[in-house]
Design goal:
Strand content: under 5%
Helix content: over 70%
Largest sheet: none
CATH class: Mainly Alpha
Amino acid sequence: MDLDHLDGFTAGDRQLEGELAALFLSTAEVYVGRMSQALTAGESWTGPAHALKGASANLGARRLAVLARLAEQSEPDATTLDEVRRALNEVRELFEARQS
């Protein structure tokens, strides 16, 4: 997580950060869920991976954005999806720690 980017984005306002984090996490879960559905259905997950990449980059979740970009450019597979989920959980844990 690029905390300097996040702080610049929120001007250091922790309440705003919490609101953005909640919105990001709920939206990211939707994208990851769609990626999971695409994997199960044997369909492309380019759309939700692209959306996750953009949302992650905008907030400064660099590692998640990179993984989403790699997913966007590859065929759906369980290993990639697991990596994306782990990275999203790391972002969630970071936000939870910063809001405590």
